[in-house]
Amino acid sequence: MNRTGIRFFYLIYVLSATVFFLYWNFPSEAVKTYLVTHANRVHPDLRITMDHIKPVFPPGIQIDIRLHHGDRTLFFAQKLKAVPQLKSFFGQKTIYNLSGITYGGKLKGTLSLSENKPAHQIYIDANLFGIQLEKIPIVQSLFEADISGTCDGRVIYRDRVGRRGRFNTKFSVSGCKLKSTTPFLGSEILVINQITAEVVIDNNRFQIKNCMLKGPQGSGRLSGIITLRYPPQASTLNLTGTLNPSSEFLAVLEKEYGNSRFSKKGSDRMDLFFRIDGALKSPNVVFN
Asked: How many CB atoms lie within 10 A of CB 171?
């Protein structure tokens, strides 16, 4: 073998050995401490924990990450990979490609970090695919019901200088079922075939924009504000919307409210205006 071939294989050996020892001696605890310290600056009431940190190829890290509020886990992702876009190191912000597994589905997006003063700037843009609602404990406990369905959507988080960050979300849920021990309008199971909505989360304020629902009991629109409180069941509602109910559901409404105005003839469309207020645990539903 000529000298060029020997040098080439020697170089491959040195690089392979270097990569192996870097992987074997990867300072996971130091990296974990650094990431948690910086991540917890996002919101003073939120706490982030990370486990199983290890390097991956292309060069990056893989972690299991949990987002907590008090003693509740709000979000959990397994095998979340963060791989930097190398060209971003030469710009004003560093961009990481994200991918991972969360609640039976997948997450894919980007994380942008900027060191520009007066404050660190964080921007997250993530797409969610096939998220199983029944696997999310906070969803189950929030509504005190068994909720199932498949969710796809997009989540954007922006830092704001001098203020807490804000989330913008757009999502759709298919095959949604809510099963509760407390019957609602004569039924323990509520089926909604399709839900689409845009939600802005600003501190403890959820602003629901143009939520559309379709199911066997009818179709409708919903918008308004949910103010989160502790415990979550004490959260307050201020929602309004319209409902075009099926004939069967109209009969249920008429029986529940004892009002003949819920009746409609033939296939004529009827849009009922309603308001929902009060606490999440025992909301007041009023039809206008």
From this structure: 17
Q: Where are the beta strands (DSSP E) in 40-162?
A: 46-56, 60-69, 72-84, 93-102, 105-114, 121-132, 146-160
What's the gap between Cα 275 and its chain centre? 26
Question: With contact defined as beta carbons under 8 Å apart, do 125 and 110 qualify?
Answer: yes
Query: Residues 16-44: pLDDT tens digits?
Result: 444 444 444 444 455 556 556 655 555 56
Biggest alpha carbon–alpha carbon distance for the chain: 97
What type of residue sits at position 195? I
Kind of pairing between the strands at 236-245 and 218-227: antiparallel
Of 127, 169, 179, the residue nearest 149 (C-alpha): 179
Enter the pTM of the model.
0.78
Q: Report how far residue 193's alpha carbon sits from residue 233's, in angstroms, rounded to the nearest whole number.
A: 25
